[in-house]
Amino acid sequence: MWNKIEKFFIKNPKKLKIIRTILEFGLSIKENKRIYCGSIEIPYSKIANALNVDRRVVINTIDLVLADKYLKRIFSKIKPAGPSFQDIAKENEFGVVEISAEPKTVGIIAKVSELIAKERVSIRQIIAQDPELYPDPKLIIITEKPITDITKKFLEIPGIDSVSIF
Question: Final residue of a domain: which of 77, 110, 139?
Fold first, then answer.
């Protein structure tokens, strides 16, 4: 998906930066030419200021999305994935497992979940960063409580390169 989107905007780095940010945050672009986070409208100027671009470039980017059938379908339906508990885990006595792995390897989440279940710990949240958007994607698992150090067991799973447990 990202490859198609990137090709569309590759000749204009500012527009590419805008559209990438909209995608990363799960913001949608509606028929009324407005940007939304769920049902909350995000003003063009806020995106422009955050990305250090002119607000007219944001508007032009939105116009291009709505003029293209594929982009319009994608960006009119996208939704935010929800909150990430990673940065508030410690305050809530949750555990965090951060895994770097080969993105195309099948079954990593299942095998990691099985190891965590064997520790009799439940999983509150799993975030898998998209390898097309993130150069070094991570699998982030938030557990109900910190888990004991089972790093070696995680590293035995084919495709896993590194593990950090917090």
Answer: 77
Exposure on the CB side of residue 65, measured as CA atoms within 13 A: 32
Q: How many domains does the chain have?
A: 2
C-alpha 154/C-alpha 98 separation (Å) is 11
Q: Which two tokens stand for residue 62?
A: 């939105």
pLDDT at 52: 98
Do 56 and 91 reside in the same domain of the chain? no
pTM reported for the whole predicted model:
0.82
* Structure-token match 């965590």, residue found: 116
* Token pair for 50: 């955050």
Summarised one tens digit per residue, pLDDT across range 124-161 is 999 999 998 888 999 999 999 999 879 999 999 999 99
Question: Would you tell me how many other CB atoms lie within 10 Å of the CB of residue 20?
Answer: 16
Residue at 111: amino acid letter: K
Q: Is 159 left (phi over 0), alpha (psi -120 to 50) or beta?
A: left
Token duo for residue 88: 């508030």
